[in-house]
Structure formats: structure tokens, C-alpha cells
Specification:
The complex is a heterodimer of chains A (about 270) and B (about 350). Chain A contains seven helices and 13 strands. Chain A is α/β, with parallel strands linked by helices. In chain B, strand 9 and strand 10 form a beta hairpin. The radius of gyration of chain B is 23 Å and the shape is elongated. The chains are: A alpha/beta (about 270), B alpha/beta (about 350).
């Protein structure tokens, strides 16, 4: 009897899908410029990449699949036509298929969460991975919202994920203010990834070629019957106040003198 | 609705400049809005954490006629002690709500989000706030989704009851936003932007009322999330997020052993120890010392960075420091562009010299 129970759990894992949301953002190394008309940050002719935290999310999903705990990794991206490039990168890393929810609007995290919830209702994943935050808006909200809308547990800022195949739970170490915290969450669950969870792989050339034939399904917000939330208005985007330029000192003695007698901090 | 009518009436007035509607709408918002704020409070060992008090300071600036309620959850005597301390942690706190139950022994997002939804149905809150600590960041967005509200996270400036400034692109741009929804306005507050002025103890000041929340109708189904444990550094060093002095080391320190030099210097100056992502990744220090865009944001009086190159993501965490000092062997390190005082030199020589010559901490 015990044998058949563990077989059915294994079967569950063998059919488990993992949904990973990936966002196309300004590359982390770019020095951004605020537009003179203060409507936003300049993104034309600027290098764009997959959000670093989303890469980590995808990498973790791929590792879980390679360990035999999942059957399929699905990458999702929401945005303009160029999101297909981001999805192709994800497919080249190893995702099985992609979903592109095409829109030229810039959605708030709550709308993104509703879209992901709609997709989860259709795909029934056992896990949803997201990066903890996007490095453009730095919101750090979407994962938590998806979990709320689905009524699933959440494990945010994950630095380690261990799946227990018998008990259908994930043990997650999280990076919190005081150090590390460990939680146990029942699947299905939402996990958001922090920096030290893993080192994402580079897509090899053969995998990049293979990725060209993997399917990307195109959808619209209307297809998913999602109510678009616009309860936040952006009034302006500005540069932060510039620091007064500093001075170079030539010795420790001079430094101490300045800190003591000029800055009055020691 | 009243707001729109008043605005129209005022703009019809020929004495009102027609290009100043924005400032008028802010002041009308402040006048007409009765502000009632619920703050998700954090406590430890029987007292309220400093970032919660900063959140009270922020709530104070939302407008006139404001009432501030602190929501504490936990179980047992340390919770009740914290509630008592919370009632006098700041003169602006009107009431302390206490949810005492085993469910809240450790702050998990799922029961906490249900609790906030439960509580806010009983009070008519115009605003729900939390600090943008790992607690607030984990919980508040989950609550917001339950309430179908878009929250505004990491607020650094409050311009009015529904107008805020938050950093984007690792603080390289600031975004001014207005909340236009019907539900409560929900925010997480960056505590370094709302310092707490030292409060002189006033024996006359009345303590806030403390109410135990009746949880008999609080329905939290079987928990799908369980706390297993944690690892924290027990240290006498001041808390990184609120220290007056922060000494940070980068990967150039090369080892756990060498990092002790940073600790010695921090101890000499009565400061906290910080680290760059590279130093944490290399294993020289634990993760909770990481300063930067996705780590801790600090704003000390004195920030000293040794062997730190000054990557964009690190600078995001230190830009509001009063005085920044950088020591690096590389004269071209980007950190020198933000440092008030820069010294090109070998940290392995500079730190011992500083230890020898610096006066003892004030």
C-alpha cells in the first residue's frame, strides 16, 4: 500500500509543471538617464536583458526539472513584441515552452499578478517562480500578490529551495533582515528568488538553435479576461539630488583631520 | 466628490493662479480627508522595532486629523510587553491593537495578511502602512492583493495623503506617484527617510489605548506554511539599518579573517559592519550585512568603504549617508565619484593606521 502511495506522488512530480515569470528590463550595467520631459527613464536604444532575479528564478526551475521533480518548465513574459527575445533566451536556457502576453501598456504589479493567476488557473503548475524584484521599478510585489490571488503559500527572497518528493512540500531558506529564516511550504506554492539562490547558466549555442523551434504561445489580456488595475498615476520621474563633489586626501592623517575638524563625525 | 467641487470653485476664483491646480489639490486633500492609519508593527523581545517608529513618523506626515493604530501580533508575555511599550513609543500613536494567538508566534505572511484584512473591516482605515523591512515587504503586497489595491512600496517622501516619492532603477531616478484608488492607500516606508527625533519623556503624555483583538471569528484555515527556524547573528554591534556609523568591506578583504579588521574599526567607532554583495557571495560575512539595492539601505552620519569599487547596486544603498569615505587601491574606482573624502591606498595599511590614530568613539 505504501509503495503505491509513493508511486502516485512520484507520478505527481513527473507531471508537475513550473511556471516562471520573466521580465525584460534595462540591463543592470546600464547607466540610466532620466528623460528631460520627466515622463520616465530613457529606454530607447538602451541595452535590455532578462531581469537578473528572473534568470535566477528560471535557473532554479530548470534545476528542479533536471532533478526529476518536474515535467515541464514554462516561461511567461508580459509586454511588447520584444519580450519574445527574452522568452527565446529562456527557452535557450532550457525552458520547454513560452507564453507571451502581448501588450504595449505598462502594467502595475497587481495587473501582472492577475494575468499570472489566470495562466496558473489554466496550466495548474505545482510551483510558480518569480524574481523577488525587477531592477527597473524595484517594486518587490508581484510574487506576493500572485500567491494571495491563488490562496497559495509564499516563500519570498529564497536563497535555497529543497523539494521533498514524498510530502509535497518545499523547504525554503529566506534572506531576511536578521539573517536567514527557514520555512516549510505546501505545494502548490509561489517562490520569489534572491541573489544567492543559484548562478544562472549561459545558453549554449546548440541550445540557442534548439530554442528556435520551441513554441511561444501568443495571448492578450482580453484572452485572459483580466481586469486591468490602474489606481496609481505616475506624475513625474526625476533625478535624485546630486551629492556635492568630494575631495581626495593624501594620507590617513589628513583623512582623520577632515573627519574630525571639517565633517565633525569623529 | 466634495474635493472636485471645491477644486472647481476655487479655480473659478480669479485670484487663484490657473497653473497651480496641483498644489491646491494637495491641500484640499489634506483638509477634507480624515486620515486613519493602520500600521503593521514589528516587535522583538518585548519592544517595538525602530523601523516601526519611523513608520509612525511617516504616518504623521500624511495629514492633519490623523489617528494612528499599531497592529501587533504574536503570542504570550513578550507580545503583551511589546504592546505596553508600543503605547508610549511615540506621542502620535492613538491605539495599539493586539492579536494574541499561537498562529502569530512567528510572522508568516499568510495568517498576517488574513489578520490585516480582518482588522481593517472593523476600523475604517484610509491608509495601511508597514516598514519596507523584510517583514513589511513580505506581507504588505499580499494584503494589498487581497484588498485589490496597488500598494506603493519603499516610499522615501510623503507629499500629501495620496502623493508619494519612491526610488526606481536602484535609486538613480525618483518617481512621484499619486494613488487614485477607492480602497485604503497602502505603503511601505523606507525608514532611513523618516528618522525619529529623540522624544523627551513627558510624564503628562497619555499612553495610547491597548485593545486585545477578539479572534474568535478569525478564520484561518489549516496553515500551508510553517516556520522551521532561523539563524541570526547575536551581536553587540548596533543595528545596520539605524547605526550612526557604518564600516563596509568589499571583496578586497580576501578572507573571513581579514574582515575582522573591519569589525575592529567598527568597534572603535561604535559602528555597524556592512559588506558588499561580492564579500557576502565570497562567504566572508553573512547575508544580513549586505548593503545595496537588494540588501540593506543605510543612511548613517559616517559611511566608510574599504576595498569597495562602487557598483551602481551598492551605491543605491548608501546615497543618503551624510559623509562617505572611500579607501581603494584603484584611483579609478567609481566609489570615488560619490565619496566626500577619498584616499587611494592599500586598506591593509590604512585600516591599522586608522585604528592607531583615530580618537575613541564619542
Amino acid at each position: 500500500e505504501i509503495k503505491s502511495a509513493s508511486v502516485s506522488f512520484l507520478y505527481c512530480y513527473r507531471t508537475m509543471k513550473i511556471l516562471v515569470a520573466v521580465k525584460r528590463v534595462v540591463d543592470y550595467a546600464v547607466k540610466i538617464r532620466v528623460k528631460p520631459d520627466k515622463t520616465g527613464v530613457e529606454t530607447q536604444n538602451v541595452k535590455m536583458s532578462m531581469n537578473p532575479f528572473c534568470e535566477i528564478a528560471l535557473e532554479e526551475a530548470l534545476r528542479i526539472k533536471e532533478a526529476g521533480f518536474a515535467k515541464e518548465v514554462i516561461a511567461v513574459s508580459i509586454g511588447p513584441s520584444q519580450c519574445v527575445d527574452t522568452l527565446r533566451t529562456g527557452l535557450a536556457m532550457g525552458a520547454d515552452r513560452g507564453i507571451h502576453v502581448e501588450t504595449n501598456s505598462s502594467f502595475l504589479p497587481l495587473t501582472i499578478a492577475k494575468i499570472l493567476k489566470s495562466l496558473a488557473d489554466v496550466e495548474n503548475p505545482g510551483l510558480i517562480f518569480l524574481g523577488k524584484q525587477a531592477i527597473d521599478d524595484d517594486c518587490n510585489q508581484t510574487g506576493q500578490m500572485v500567491a494571495a490571488l491563488l490562496g497559495w503559500p509564499q516563500a519570498t527572497f529564497a536563497s535555497k529551495v529543497v523539494l521533498d518528493k514524498d510530502k509535497n512540500v518545499a523547504t525554503v531558506d529566506r534572506e531576511v533582515d536578521g539573517g536567514l529564516e527557514t520555512l516549510n511550504v505546501d505545494l502548490p506554492a509561489v517562490i520569489t528568488t534572491d541573489l544567492r539562490l543559484n548562478q544562472p547558466r549561459y545558453a549554449s549555442l546548440p541550445n540557442i538553435m534548439k530554442a528556435k523551434s520551441k513554441p511561444i504561445k501568443k495571448m492578450t489580456v482580453q484572452d485572459l479576461k483580466v481586469d486591468i488595475k490602474s489606481d496609481i498615476e505616475i506624475l513625474e520621474v526625476t533625478e535624485p539630488p546630486k551629492r556635492k563633489s568630494g575631495v581626495m586626501v593624501s594620507s590617513v592623517d589628513e583623512l582623520i583631520d577632515k573627519l574630525k575638524n571639517e565633517a565633525h563625525v569623529v | 466628490m466634495t474635493r472636485t467641487v471645491l477644486l472647481r470653485a476655487l479655480t473659478k476664483n480669479k485670484f487663484v493662479a490657473s497653473n497651480a491646480p496641483r498644489s491646491i489639490s494637495i491641500s484640499i486633500t489634506n483638509l477634507s480627508r480624515c486620515i486613519s492609519t493602520l500600521i503593521l508593527a514589528e516587535h522583538e523581545s518585548g519592544s517595538i522595532k525602530p523601523q516601526t517608529v519611523s513608520t509612525v513618523v511617516a504616518a504623521n506626515s500624511l495629514g492633519e486629523n490623523s489617528s494612528i493604530s499599531l497592529l501587533l501580533a504574536g503570542s504570550g508575555s513578550s507580545l503583551q510587553e511589546a504592546a505596553s511599550q508600543a503605547a508610549s513609543c511615540h506621542p502620535s500613536v492613538s491605539e495599539v491593537l493586539v492579536a494574541d494567538s499561537d498562529k502569530f508566534e512567528y510572522p508568516l505572511a499568510e495568517p498576517w495578511a488574513k489578520l490585516v484584512d480582518f482588522v481593517r473591516l472593523q476600523g475604517d482605515y484610509s491608509h495601511i502602512l508597514a516598514s519596507s523591512s523584510s517583514f513589511g515587504k513580505n506581507i504588505l503586497p499580499r494584503v494589498a492583493a487581497l484588498l485589490d489595491v496597488s500598494p506603493i512600496t519603499d516610499v522615501v517622501k510623503i507629499l500629501g495623503s495620496n502623493q508619494f516619492v519612491r526610488p526606481i532603477y536602484a535609486g538613480n531616478a525618483l518617481c512621484t506617484v499619486r494613488y487614485t484608488g477607492a480602497g485604503p492607500c497602502m505603503l511601505t516606508i523606507r525608514s532611513t527617510s523618516f528618522p525619529v527625533a529623540p522624544i523627551t519623556a513627558d510624564p503628562e503624555s497619555k499612553k495610547a489605548t491597548i485593545s486585545q483583538i477578539d479572534l474568535s471569528n478569525f478564520n484561518d484555515s489549516v496553515s500551508k506554511s510553517r516556520y522551521v527556524g532561523r539563524s541570526t547573528q547575536d551581536t553587540e554591534r548596533p543595528d545596520l539599518g539605524s547605526a550612526r556609523v557604518v564600516i563596509t568591506g568589499g571583496r578586497a578583504l580576501k578572507s573571513v579573517e581579514n574582515f575582522k579588521m573591519i569589525e575592529k574599526l567598527a568597534e572603535k567607532l561604535g559602528g555597524a559592519v556592512g559588506a558588499t554583495r561580492a564579500a557576502v557571495d565570497a562567504g566572508y560575512v553573512p547575508n544580513d550585512l549586505q548593503v545595496g539595492q537588494t540588501g540593506k539601505i543605510v543612511a548613517p552620519e559616517l559611511y566608510m568603504a574599504f576595498g569597495v569599487s562602487g557598483a551602481i547596486q551598492h551605491l543605491a544603498g548608501i546615497k543618503d549617508s551624510k559623509v562617505i569615505v572611500a579607501v581603494n587601491k584603484d584611483a579609478d574606482a567609481p566609489i570615488f565619484q560619490v565619496a566626500d573624502y577619498g584616499l587611494v591606498g592599500d586598506l591593509f595599511e590604512v585600516i591599522p593606521e586608522l585604528l592607531e590614530k583615530l580618537p575613541e568613539k564619542k
